[in-house]
Specification:
single chain; 319 residues; alpha/beta; FAD/NAD(P)-binding domain; five-stranded parallel sheet; 25% helix
């Protein structure tokens, strides 16, 4: 696509419409900064796309709210503030040019004075098991996201994974399914201890230290052939539905064209959320600094700091 007739010039481009990006948008328009939010997927970030029914307990004033509902509230506030996110608008490149920063998307080119990177780890997709038989049952009997908990009613369910996402979803399904088993390759779940205790109280069966070897479809349901992680015993687990929650695959390739100091896969920032590239700020799960906590509440605080820094940067730039 050529962008010769589609060059837009807001002052600020926010890349990402998760909690950090949406908060930054609201703060920026409140300060009178001409702003656009660009989101390669769906507004709301991972809260909306990966864990919409997962309860959020540690966001002030909203204890236990489903993640998707919290995301909808944030999106609605951004829209009402006058900065509706541009969804399905994937950023393909960022370049510092003589008169600003060029932001390339699949729709248009933006020439801006400042950028806030609030894209988490980029466009994320659920991580697959990558075992034989998996792709044949995807979207039919094997899923990576719970779209509708009622669709799991009175079924025999297996959840594969051991982190907070898997544990929270197993707990959710325990209120709907006839039987829930959680399978994890390590000897202990990595979820919060209170969630693990809640799983035990709910009667969720835990198969720890086991790997899924392959999957077999049948007219009666689906069979997971599992084996001990140490290579010993093997078993077959029969069920009607499988939920796989073993993490995500992320992509931040579009950042390679910027001279950003990195800390492994993340972007280093200072206390003002400035990166090593002039005019580029960052917040949320993407950033790294000493003492960083990856929480929603942390991300929105960092977003406010980033916008304050952008305001100062733009003021100096204008004068």
């Amino acid at each position: 696509m050529t962008h010769d007739d589609a060059v837009l010039e807001p002052e600020l481009a926010i890349i990402g419409a998760g909690p950090a990006g949406l908060t930054a948008g609201v703060f920026a328009v409140d300060k009178g900064i001409d702003t656009v939010i660009l989101e390669g997927g769906r507004a709301g970030g991972q809260l909306a796309t990966l864990y919409p029914h997962k309860p959020v307990y540690n966001y002030p004033g909203n204890s236990g709210i489903p993640a998707g509902s919290l995301a909808k509230r944030m999106v609605r506030q951004a829209v009402e503030s006058g900065v509706a996110p541009s969804e399905e608008c994937e950023v393909s490149g960022l370049r510092i040019v003589e008169n600003g920063i060029s932001v390339e998307t699949d729709r248009a080119r933006y020439l801006v004075s400042a950028v806030i990177l609030a894209c988490g780890m980029g466009l994320v997709l659920p991580r697959r098991l990558e075992v034989d038989g998996e792709r044949e049952v995807e979207g039919k009997k094997l899923f990576y996201v719970i779209d509708d908990p009622d669709g799991w009613n009175e079924t025999k369910v297996v959840v594969v994974g051991g982190g907070d996402g898997a544990a929270d979803n197993a707990l959710l399904l325990a209120r709907h399914a006839a039987e829930v088993t959680i399978i994890h390759r390590r000897e202990a779940l990595r979820a919060q201890e209170r969630t693990v205790e809640a799983l035990r109280s709910a009667g969720v069966r835990m198969l720890l230290g086991w790997d899924v070897g392959h999957i077999v479809d049948s007219t009666d349901g689906i069979s997971l052939h599992v084996k001990r992680a140490d290579g010993g015993e093997e078993r077959r687990i029969d069920c009607l539905r499988v939920l796989v929650n073993i993490g995500v695959r992320a992509n931040t390739d579009f950042l390679r064209t910027l001279p950003l100091e990195r800390v492994k896969a993340r972007v280093a920032v200072d206390t003002e959320m400035r990166t090593s590239a002039d005019g580029v700020f960052a917040c949320g799960d993407l950033v790294a600094y000493p003492g960083k906590s990856r929480l929603i509440v942390t991300a929105v605080g960092e977003a406010a700091t980033a916008v304050n820094s952008v305001e100062r940067y733009l003021r100096k730039r204008r004068h």
